[in-house]
Structures are given as structure tokens and as C-alpha cells.
TrEMBL record:
The lineage of its organism: Eukaryota, Metazoa, Ecdysozoa, Tardigrada, Eutardigrada. It comes from Ramazzottius varieornatus. The gene is RvY_12573-1. Residues 8-43 form the EF-hand domain. Keywords: Calcium. This is EF-hand domain-containing protein. GO terms for molecular function: calcium ion binding. InterPro entries: EF-hand-dom_pair, EF_Hand_1_Ca_BS, EF_hand_dom. It comes from the Eukaryota.
Length: 209
């Protein structure tokens, strides 16, 4: 089922547009992050809008946005001026995002060394995915997560099975938090076409532009 070509770009394109660029204009902005914060706040309160909860999430994701903008835009010393003519200030393109992730893959050797906002995102993902709150991820948790996020439910069993190592199989096909972190780290950093972590954020579709 896994494609043997480099699926790195495909999964990151899917994630960029589906999870972050909420207005679909091809740029990540503070407004996208605020929309995301509001969605998460309402989800946390089971569909209710509560101003203090929304404010808390806005502040939280605002912090993520500040880190991303500082790290990913060409004004930082790591970037050349190439492509600066079509830049939007205060916005992050997919190319910026990809460069940021390349830097992450060079600098981080494990989950613990990922940038703080990606680790915060990992924590949030784990909490949201662990539907029955037992501190573990099983295929049922994963299926519910995939369904709730309008991803391809028909592929969820296969994608989950793909992520399991022989040790996970011996552990009743259940992912510990440590294994989740390993898969999450692989998702962001591995270019290996068969990297198990490619589905930890859910099944993705081909979005090659
Ligand atoms: Ca946008
Ligand atoms: Ca669970």
C-alpha cells in the first residue's frame, strides 16, 4: 500500500493545506492560526463558544505562530534572498514551511529535539487521538480520530497497521506514548518512502501541485 516514491512532499502538502492553511490561500498567516485556535477551543468545549477558552487557545497558538514566523521566513539569517520578490510579509508559504522542516530534520535527532511548537502539537494530537483516555493509541482511537477529521476512514485500518513495528504487534498492536513520539518524529523528518510515521497524522492524499 505504501508508495515507493518519495511521499514526503505529498504528506506535508496535505498537512499544510488541511491542518494549517485554513482559508486555503496557499499562505500560513496569523489569521489561519487564530481560526485553528477557535476550532480547537470549540472542540474542547464540545461545540460551545466560551470566550475565556477561546482566548486561551488564541494565546497558545499565537505563541506557535510567532515561533514559526521567526524560524521559517527568509528574514532569518539561515535564508538567502532567493524568491523574496514574491513574498508576502507576515506569511509563510509551503516553500518556507518545507525549508523550515528541512532545518528541523537536520537539527533534531529525536522527538525531544523538535521545535517546541511541534512538540506542543504532538501533545495535542496525542490527547485528541487517545479517545478512551487510557494513555495509549489503539486502532479504534485512530479510526475515530480519522473520522472526526474528515480523512479517508476506509484507509484507517491499513494505515494504522502500516505504522506497527514487530514490537508493537507483540504489544497487542497498541502504541505507547513513546512509540507515538517516535512515529511523530518520523512524520516530520524522514524522507524514507517506507517510514512508518507517515500516517501518524492520518491517511493523506496525493496533493502534488
Ligand atoms: Ca492561509
Ligand atoms: Ca487509547
Amino acid at each position: 500500500m505504501a508508495s515507493l516514491k518519495d511521499n514526503y512532499k505529498e504528506r506535508h502538502l496535505f498537512n499544510f493545506y488541511k491542518s494549517w492553511d485554513l482559508d486555503g490561500d496557499g499562505w500560513l498567516t496569523a489569521e489561519d492560526f487564530m481560526s485553528n485556535a477557535e476550532t480547537l477551543a470549540v472542540l474542547q468545549r464540545h461545540g460551545k463558544w466560551e470566550e475565556d477558552v477561546v482566548a486561551r487557545w488564541r494565546s497558545y497558538l499565537g505563541g506557535w505562530w510567532d515561533i514559526l514566523l521567526a524560524e521559517a521566513t527568509p528574514s532569518s539569517p539561515d535564508f538567502s534572498n532567493k524568491g523574496s520578490s514574491d513574498r508576502r510579509s507576515g506569511a509563510v508559504s509551503f516553500e518556507d514551511w518545507a525549508r523550515f522542516l528541512k532545518k528541523v530534520s537536520i537539527l533534531a535527532d529525536s522527538y525531544r529535539e523538535l521545535p517546541d511548537f511541534l512538540k506542543a502539537y504532538g501533545n495535542l494530537l496525542f490527547v485528541r487521538m487517545d479517545y478512551n483516555k487510557d494513555g495509549l493509541i489503539c486502532v479504534k482511537d485512530y479510526r475515530i480520530y480519522v473520522a472526526k477529521n474528515n480523512m479517508d476512514i476506509m484507509r484507517s485500518n491499513d494505515c494504522y497497521a502500516f505504522m506497527l513495528s514487530s514490537t508493537d504487534l507483540r504489544n497487542d498492536s497498541i502504541l505507547s506514548r513513546q512509540r507515538f513520539d517516535e512515529l511523530f518524529y518520523e512524520y516530520w523528518t524522514s524522507h524514507h518512502p517506507a517510514c512508518r510515521g507517515q500516517y501518524i497524522l492520518g491517511p493523506y492524499e496525493n496533493m502534488s501541485l
